[in-house]
């Protein structure tokens, strides 16, 4: 086979990395090279961002070390039996690419994952070597996110945390049954064992940093994980339950959801069609309800239908409100912040504005409208000065009245 040059490798391995959604860079330690030392930063002006066709903001060099793999996970396009063109970077090539892209203002950091080559330990060694070289040989101060391998030696995974801002270990699928069926070479207990070790190491690192100023930072942006949605028969209720458990047990920064996408030469055990992308979006919204709006997992699951699925035509908070109308309407001038956060159409910022503003005057419906994007969705669920929805909350057609209207978009609209 002809030798691939760096540009060809980049085309293959950047495309292969697009299926991993967990590449956000929030929550990292602030570092910069404004003092004349080092290269790169995790903040500030001069960082260019690109946008993928699906709208996601990408500001990292997001690649695989290699798309070759000794595993044969049914849902993975890079599985051992897949008929795809293979490529592999050396650790030095990834380092050089990262530095070259950063100096051109293309990126603010690196997201590095890999297929398994040789063994889990050998692959993890190569990943760690990239981060080590960037930090120690080139004093790189930008963002680094490393995807770690659960089967690798714990010492190697620990080294990854010393060099990376964030580490992630994918749980892959929501249920142990689905994992055994679609990724028989992976073990849920080993994955969670590695996440437990990382949680303890992050806690130890924070404790050491609090005691000793010279202590090295350890994964300051924490750890995250990803679940594939729609590759197995797990319903949304099972995914929400799993996400809640992961947040509680491992103090994760984020759980990412990735809608399964049919792949070439797919295994016969996989579904023929991808799930609706809106399903992925609704799961992210349910995740937000648990993390920022005070909803318990059971309450979010109560918004699902008889099949355990979140509705696709309305968001989970509206679905919950329509099921539990006895909690509404809510008085915007008296209700506690926790109850205002449950009003469909009110976000965290709008609620904080309402709480701050009502200290000085009683708010009318027009006042609320000025503090949020649109008051139409909110009206049936609130009481304000001069406004009471009377029987509006009990209407049988309330769902149709507050449901977002479908619009045909025009490609060349003015």
UniProtKB/TrEMBL annotation:
CDD domains: Radical_SAM. Keywords: Iron, Iron-sulfur, Metal-binding, S-adenosyl-L-methionine. The keyword S-adenosyl-L-methionine applies. This is Putative DNA modification/repair radical SAM protein. One of its GO terms (molecular function) is metal ion binding. PANTHER family: ENDONUCLEASE/EXONUCLEASE/PHOSPHATASE FAMILY DOMAIN-CONTAINING PROTEIN 1, TYPE II SECRETION SYSTEM PROTEIN K. The keyword S-adenosyl-L-methionine applies. Residues 59-286 form the Elp3/MiaA/NifB-like radical SAM core domain. Its cofactor is [4Fe-4S] cluster. InterPro entries: Aldolase_TIM (IPR013785), DNA_rSAM_put (IPR023874), Elp3/MiaA/NifB-like_rSAM (IPR006638), Endo/Exo/Phosphatase_dom_1 (IPR051675), rSAM (IPR007197), rSAM_sf (IPR058240), RuvA_2-like (IPR010994).
């Amino acid at each position: 086979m002809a030798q691939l040059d760096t540009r060809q490798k980049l085309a293959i391995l950047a495309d292969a990395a697009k299926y991993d959604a967990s590449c956000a860079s929030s929550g990292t330690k602030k570092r910069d090279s404004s003092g004349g030392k080092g290269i790169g930063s995790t903040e500030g002006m001069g960082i260019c961002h690109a946008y993928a066709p699906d709208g996601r903001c990408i500001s990292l060099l997001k690649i695989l070390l290699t798309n070759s793999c000794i595993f044969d996970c049914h849902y993975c396009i890079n599985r051992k039996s897949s008929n795809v063109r293979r490529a592999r970077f050396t650790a030095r090539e990834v380092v050089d690419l990262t530095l070259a892209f950063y100096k051109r203002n293309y990126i603010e950091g690196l997201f590095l994952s890999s297929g398994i080559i040789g063994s889990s330990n050998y692959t993890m060694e190569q990943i760690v070597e990239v981060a080590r070289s960037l930090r120690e040989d080139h004093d790189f101060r930008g963002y680094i996110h490393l995807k770690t391998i659960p089967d690798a030696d714990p010492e190697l995974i620990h080294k990854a945390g010393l060099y990376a801002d964030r580490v992630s270990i994918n749980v892959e699928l929501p249920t142990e049954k689905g994992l055994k069926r679609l990724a028989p070479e992976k073990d849920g207990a080993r994955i969670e064992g590695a996440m437990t070790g990382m949680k303890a190491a992050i806690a130890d690192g924070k404790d050491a940093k609090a005691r000793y100023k010279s202590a090295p930072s350890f994964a300051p942006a924490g750890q995250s994980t990803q679940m594939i949605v729609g590759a197995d028969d797990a319903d949304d209720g099972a995914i929400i339950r799993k996400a809640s458990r992961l947040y509680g047990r491992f103090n994760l920064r984020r759980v990412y959801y990735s809608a399964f996408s049919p792949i070439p030469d797919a295994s016969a055990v996989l579904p023929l069609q991808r799930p609706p992308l809106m399903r992925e979006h609704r799961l992210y919204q349910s995740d937000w309800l648990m993390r920022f709006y005070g909803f318990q997992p059971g309450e979010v699951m109560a918004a699902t239908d008889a099949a355990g699925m979140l509705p696709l035509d309305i968001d989970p908070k509206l679905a919950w409100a329509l099921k539990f109308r006895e909690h509404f309407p809510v008085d915007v001038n008296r209700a506690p912040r926790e109850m205002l956060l449950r009003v469909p159409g009110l976000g965290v910022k709008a609620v904080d504005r309402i709480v701050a503003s009502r200290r000085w005057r009683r708010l009318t419906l027009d006042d609320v409208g000025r503090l949020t994007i649109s008051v139409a969705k909110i009206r049936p669920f609130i009481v304000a000065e001069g406004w009471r929805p009377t029987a509006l909350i009990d209407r049988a057609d309330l769902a149709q009245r507050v449901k977002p209207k479908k619009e045909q978009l025009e490609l060349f609209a003015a």
